[in-house]
Amino acid sequence: MLLYTVQQSPKILSLSLLLCLLFLGGHCCVGQYYRVREQVQHLQNFDKKIIHYGYFFGFNDFGYQIEYVSDYTARIGGQGYPNIELEKNLGFNVGLVGDLRINRYLNLRIEPGLYYSQRNLLYPYESAAWQRNFPSYTSDNDGLREVKSTYIHLPLLIKFSGERINNWKPYLVGGMSTSFNLSSNQKNNDDNFNNVFRVTGQTFNYEVGFGIDFYLVYFKFSPSIRGIFSIQNELIPDNGTSGISPWTSNIVNLISRGVVINFTFE
Length: 266
Fold this sequence. Notes:
Elements: H1 2-8, H2 10-38, E1 51-68, E2 85-101, E3 106-110, E4 113-122, H3 126-129, E5 144-161, E6 168-181, E7 202-215, E8 220-230, E9 251-265
Antiparallel strand pairs: 1-2, 1-9, 2-3, 2-4, 3-5, 4-5, 5-6, 6-7, 7-8, 8-9
């Protein structure tokens, strides 16, 4: 029966042999590929250092989470005012890295850096129209506030690393940080009535992100992406003599939210 099948179906036999050869050949090639790759690992003892240093540079995209007063949506015949528009600009960050090895999978890191960012708040005219006390609020310039920030950013992070695969290794990172805003205008006596938008000079944040360590011949390169979330209100109310301001009276909380992309060299 087998001989008859072979004689009647030479194409089937040839195809079966070809598939077997491809399978065995592919299996050998894959095995050989990993065997060869494992022999070319760079910086094999790098992660065994108790302490090491580095630096980073990158980009940031900071915005605000805006929380309004409870009756903000009840004004103007119950339709509510339009939301304040937020215009974000790409910022730049640079800093240093200090890394303390805890064990094979955990590292304690500090990454002090300087972060530059700018956010523009575009106030709709309707949000000030009800303020008859402010007849000067009549142009687009009155509804534009440029919030420029220069942060000294001080995070304390825990890095959770996975297993190294040849010359790369994934990781998660998270922790707490504080930021000192050198452009906050917190101590400025002028306010939005003099075209000065004020925020607090220090904020506290939590951070979470992920990245990949690439082990190159002479150094380790680690691109990463991280979210930075403030846990406090940053808005400083205006000093308006009537206690009402078209720029700050409608806002309860102004909270920073940021996305950071860093390129780290260690």
